[in-house]
Design goal:
This protein has 705 residues and is α+β, with helices and mostly antiparallel strands. Among the domains are: 35 residues, no CATH class; 153 residues, no CATH class; 141 residues, Sandwich (Jelly Rolls), CATH 2.60.120. 25% of the residues lie in helices and 25% in strands. The protein is built from 17 helices and 30 strands. The strands form 6 sheets. It has a 12-stranded mixed β-sheet, with helices on both faces. Strands 22, 24, 25, 27, 28 and 30 form a 6-stranded antiparallel β-sheet that branches. α1 runs parallel beside α4, α13 packs antiparallel against α15 and α13 packs across α16. The protein starts with 13 loop residues before the first strand and ends in a 5-residue tail after the last strand. About 4% of the residues have low confidence.
Length: 705
């Protein structure tokens, strides 16, 4: 298929090569950002083998065995832009297109897309993904080195990009200054009535306030604290990687508003849920300033993309409080921003909805929406809003109401509210049987209206008949107990209940159903998302849910992984050439691994003292010893290297480690998702290089030192 020439060619000397456009002056641009060579090769292989590479391709829609695959291939990526109405705006510049998920969606919608990506590997994957679209051009270049054509584009798009502005900024230029420069350049490239669209994390997002690791740095609280002190870290990191992730910055809503004011852009925020990376709903700025936004927010609570965590605060009731206080948007985990030089009118026509809800149906592009200033819920599809689905009612989700009642009135109030829910179910069944058959009875989506009455909306795609009220009630209460019970216990204690079944029995008695068999009238194949350790979720069935302990805060002790890789190259390491052991840091065990015979003759050694799944208290450890020994045929160990200090003299490369001192010992601060240090084996005697190696690391953890 002939390649479309990008509009950028009018201002830049570009050469087409291997499906990509490159600046003529250089064949490589020096970008090093990557998800890892193995991850990107897996993405490339998946796309290459797919016969259908469209945004809704079943071959690319999962399941995924890594976050990188999910992020770069999931059809949910396009949900970020589906609620936006660009109208006649057809020419789009996408800055930082990654592996082409959003690019693919835009091309399929008929837009003329120039997609710029700095990484040659990623740009190549994006070109592969879009190879059958004649409206898309992929340009492999650093956007800061390109001249943008004046009034060349209708829309300039930055999705998950501007947080990296400081990484690639010239020396001495702050992230905010670089964002200002980038936005100024984008404004000059806009046609009249053009738009800038941004998606980025909120440094004051609720999950970060609750202690979730920052998505890029994998460190809790670092964004909330304003990234204070990173400049001192950067001096060390720059020795091995001038494009250090420690220059990454996200901003809060006030910070973005200030930047927009500084470049004379009118802007409107919108809020993708649970975040911009894999959105399942989007809220407008005005709707997020009402308590009713909890109708959507409750369905899509915060998620961590940088590893599991146990929230430092009860996160569901905190989210409810922000919604009730009309402050949800300021503390949403992600922002979408629509900006225009031409005023607010164009912003409102671009996002005409209070909300769009994709209902958890991955990649379907269909769902429900509410138009601004309308009192109905409408169907939504790829063309926008459609027929009326149901009346819209002000109110909060029943589950949220139960949790708030539990917080203020304890178990007696909670059981009373649950009993009232059964009464409302029975009343609907008797007075409106037709509506009951097709109603949404889940307490996640059923509402308590302004008069404290239950409202049961029409279920989307209603076909199957609902069970009887008593069975529906039991399923609802068990689901709440399984999914939200941990937070109830955290706020008001266990109440004397030992298992979910004990709680369920008491709720049944209070509702007038008696105790009896907890399994009676329950959907025995019903599934629940149950919160496990570190805010991870697991699907369980009814009987398992009933037998779960009714518990307070979960013990956050973790099992960590110690892993050693060997390689003949400084840069390439694979899981196939590694050994590991899992360990509990309690007790400060000595970590010892013997490398297999096939590792003999290696040139480089990489040691990962921990994996990325670190709790907040496990991000610091004292280094007591690193030892490398050679194992002789008789089993005797010969010491080759032993130290209690890691620095650039002992290790030729370190990553995601900040070095400090605690007394006279070295303190390791694990600052990112993949802490490691590497050694060159040629420093050891030649005879020892012909023997298997034994690697030992001793760490002392917080609470034990």
């Amino acid at each position: 298929m002939p390649q479309k020439k990008p509009a950028l060619i009018s201002e830049n000397r570009l050469l087409s090569r291997d499906g990509l456009w490159h600046p003529l002056e250089s064949s490589r641009n020096g970008f090093t950002y990557s998800d890892g060579s193995l991850e990107e090769q897996a993405i490339k292989d998946r796309i290459y083998s797919a016969r259908d590479r469209s945004i809704r391709s079943q071959e690319l829609s999962g399941p995924y065995n890594s976050w990188a695959l999910q992020y770069h291939l999931s059809p949910e990526r396009a949900n970020l832009l589906r609620p936006l109405r660009f109208g006649r705006r057809k020419r789009i510049l996408e800055v930082g297109c990654g592996c082409g998920a959003i690019t693919r969606y835009l091309g399929e919608q008929g837009y003329q897309v120039d997609a710029v990506e700095g990484s040659e590997e990623r740009a190549g994957i994006a070109a592969l993904r879009c190879s059958d679209l004649d409206s898309v051009s992929i340009v492999c270049a650093n956007i800061s080195t390109l001249s943008l054509p004046p009034e060349g584009y209708d829309v300039v798009l930055f999705v998950g990009v501007l947080e990296y502005a400081g990484v690639y900024a010239p020396e001495g230029v702050s992230p905010e200054q670089e964002i200002h420069r980038v936005l100024t350049s984008a404004i000059k490239a806009l046609r009249p009535d053009g738009l800038i669209v941004i998606a980025i994390e909120n440094r004051l997002g609720l999950k970060y306030l609750a202690g979730a690791p920052e998505d890029h740095l994998a460190r809790s609280w670092v964004g909330v604290a304003g990234y204070q002190g990173h400049s001192r870290i950067e001096e060390w990191d720059a020795k091995s990687n001038p494009q250090t992730r420690n220059n990454i910055r996200t901003l809060d809503q006030a910070g973005w508003q200030s930047l927009m004011d500084g470049v004379n852009l009118s802007c409107a925020f919108f809020y993708p849920l649970p975040d911009y990376k894999l959105p399942m709903a989007c809220l407008s700025e005005s709707f997020a300033q009402t308590p009713d936004c909890s109708q959507l927010a409750w369905q899509y609570p915060p998620v961590s993309r940088a590893g599991p965590w146990f929230p430092a605060i009860p996160i569901r009731v905190s989210q409810a409080g922000l919604a009730l206080g009309e402050s949800f948007g300021r503390f949403s985990d992600s922002f979408g921003i629509i900006a225009a030089p031409s005023g607010r009118a164009v912003l409102e026509e671009t996002l005409p909805y209070d909300y769009v809800n994709f209902l958890g149906m991955s990649g379907s592009a269909t769902g429900l929406c509410k138009l601004r200033h309308e009192g109905q819920i409408r169907h939504f599809d790829a063309k926008g809003h459609g027929d009326i689905h149901d009346q819209w009612v002000q109110g909060e989700p029943v589950e949220q109401h139960w949790l708030r009642v539990a917080c203020t009135e304890g178990y007696p109030g909670l059981f009373w509210a649950m009993a009232q829910y059964l009464t409302d179910l029975q009343a609907l069944y008797v007075t409106e049987p037709d509506r009951y058959r097709c109603a949404e009875l889940s307490p996640t989506k059923a509402l308590i209206d302004r008069r404290d009455r239950c409202w049961f909306p029409v279920r989307y795609g209603a076909s199957a008949t609902n069970p009887l009220p008593e069975a529906s009630w039991k399923n609802a209460v068990l689901g709440f107990a399984s999914e939200i019970g941990q937070e109830v216990c955290r706020m008001i204690g266990k109440g004397g209940y030992e298992t979910v079944s004990d709680f369920f029995q008491q709720a049944s008695t209070a509702a007038g159903l008696g105790q009896g068999d907890t399994g009676n009238s329950l959907e025995m194949n019903w599934q629940f998302n149950v919160e496990r350790e570190n805010h991870a979720y697991e699907v369980v069935r009814t009987q398992e849910a009933l037998s779960m302990p009714w518990q307070g805060p979960i013990n956050t002790n973790q099992v960590l992984r110690f892993q050693v890789y060997w390689s003949g190259s400084q840069e390439t390491y694979s899981e196939e050439e590694s050994v590991w052991l899992d360990y509990n840091p309690n007790g400060n065990p000595a970590l010892c691994l013997e490398l297999p015979s096939e590792s003999v003759g290696l040139r480089y050694l990489r040691i990962d003292p921990v994996d990325h799944n670190l709790g907040d208290t496990d991000r610091f450890a004292v280094l007591e010893e690193v030892a490398i020994e050679a194992k002789q045929e008789d089993g005797a160990l010969v010491n080759l290297f032993r130290t209690d200090v890691i620095d650039d003299k002992t290790s030729f490369y370190m990553q995601d480690l900040q070095l400090g001192t605690l007394g006279n010992q070295q303190l390791l601060h694990f600052t990112g998702p993949d802490p490691q240090f590497r050694f060159a084996i040629d420093r050891f005697p030649e005879e020892a290089q012909k023997l298997p190696l034994v690697v030992t690391v001793k760490l002392a953890w917080p609470g034990t030192i």
